[in-house]
Structure to design on (120 residues):
C-alpha cells in the first residue's frame, strides 16, 4: 500500500513538473512570437515613406500578412498549450486574440490608415 501511495505521489509531482515546464515553454513561445512580430513590424514601418497617408494595395497586403501571422501563431501556441494555462486563458478563442491585437497601441497608431485586415 505504501508503495502505491509513493508511486501516486511521484506521478503527481511529475505531472506538476510537466505542467510547469509546459507553461514555461508557452511563455517562451509567446515571447518568441512577439519578438518576431516586433521585428517584422519595425521593418515594415521603416519601409514606409514618412509622407504616406494611405497604404498601397501591396503595403496593405504585407501589413495584414504580418498581423495575421502574429494572430495565427499566438492562437496556435495557446491552443496547443491550453491544458497548462490558467483557467482565464484556457477559454481563449481566436477571436479573443484578434480583439486583443486590434486594440493594441501599435494597431491604434495605424488606425489613421483605415486598414481592414481579415484576421480570421
Amino acid at each position: 500500500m505504501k508503495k502505491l501511495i509513493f508511486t501516486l505521489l511521484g506521478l503527481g509531482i511529475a505531472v506538476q513538473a510537466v505542467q510547469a515546464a509546459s507553461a514555461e515553454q508557452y511563455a517562451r513561445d509567446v515571447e518568441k512570437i512577439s519578438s518576431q512580430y516586433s521585428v517584422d513590424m519595425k521593418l515594415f514601418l521603416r519601409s514606409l515613406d514618412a509622407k504616406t497617408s494611405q497604404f498601397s494595395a501591396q503595403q496593405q497586403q504585407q501589413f495584414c500578412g504580418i498581423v495575421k501571422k502574429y494572430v495565427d501563431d499566438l492562437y496556435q501556441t495557446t491552443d496547443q498549450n491550453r491544458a497548462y494555462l490558467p483557467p482565464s486563458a484556457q477559454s481563449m478563442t481566436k477571436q479573443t486574440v484578434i480583439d486583443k491585437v486590434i486594440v493594441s497601441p501599435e494597431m491604434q497608431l495605424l488606425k489613421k490608415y483605415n486598414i481592414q485586415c481579415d484576421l480570421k
Q: What stands out?
A: The chain is about 75% helix and 0% strand. The helical segments are 2-47, 57-80, 87-90, 94-102, 105-109.
